[in-house]
Amino acid sequence: MTYIVWGQVPLPLVALWAAALAAVLFTRMAYALRLLSVEPADARPALSRMTGFAFANGAVTGASMPLFFHALSFEGQALLTMVLVCWSAGGVSTAAAHARAFYAFVGPTLVPAAAVWAMTGSLQNIILGVLILMFGLIQIFFVRDNERVVRESFSIRYDNARLMKALEAERQEAALARDRAEDANRAKSRFLAAASHDLRQPLHALSLYSAVLKLRATDPNTGEIAEQISKASSALTALVDSLLDISKLDAGAIHPELRPFDLRKFVERIGADFRPLAEQKGLAFSVETSDAEVLSDPVLLERVLRNLLDNAVKYTRDGSVRLVAAVHADHVRLAV
Description:
5 strands; two-stranded antiparallel sheet; Heat Shock Protein 90; three-stranded mixed beta sheet; mainly alpha; rod-shaped
């Protein structure tokens, strides 16, 4: 701007205008720095003050047109107008987040320029003044849309932050509920593991009484009833044993006792117990094993295999059941 008017406008007038513009700009910068250092509790008064600074900046900037226009050549007038138009366009990016600040700036910047050109009386200059005003209106619409986009982006960001906070709270509540449930389940498992003897004792006594009743039965009907009681007691004992074993596993009360044993004898013995059950259902039963000595807990392993075979025989309607023990390098794969 100084380059344009240098030598054509009196120096005191240029200095006065430049001092006024510098005072507005430095005051606004100082206020903005203070806002950055101390965040206000309510942003609305700060926005109003920044809008006032924008108006003062636009008024001082726009005053250059009536102050300098008539002292300049036509080329200088055109260049001065171009600088003001570009200056106002630069405010689009700086005031996009708060459209009112741009409205306060662009009006006093471009209206004097349009008025000065129109007051020359030339039709061409009047059209130029109208074009300047239309350019300002286009910028206003553009800034309004930019403000809407900025506000929506901040709204989405805050909504996402609130959603993440709510999800985190729900996650913590779910984790707390899961921990409580796991604690309760472990407490239940520890209780059942500790009470296993007390739970098995009545069943064992019932089994003994049914056996005695069967031996001392005086007629066939009594013996049949005793036999049914014994079968029901055995089934109930097996079910309770399974439940207690699961509870012991959950409670960590079962510890494997590893020792070497013969794989073929182990597998064939278990297969021999289930072969009659399978044949009673009309199922083919086969055992495939290998000669090997393995290191494991035979008691726990046998219980696992018996559960698998029991389910296989129980839920297979037709076909066959196979028990396979295959040696692979340094381990054995058991499959039902």
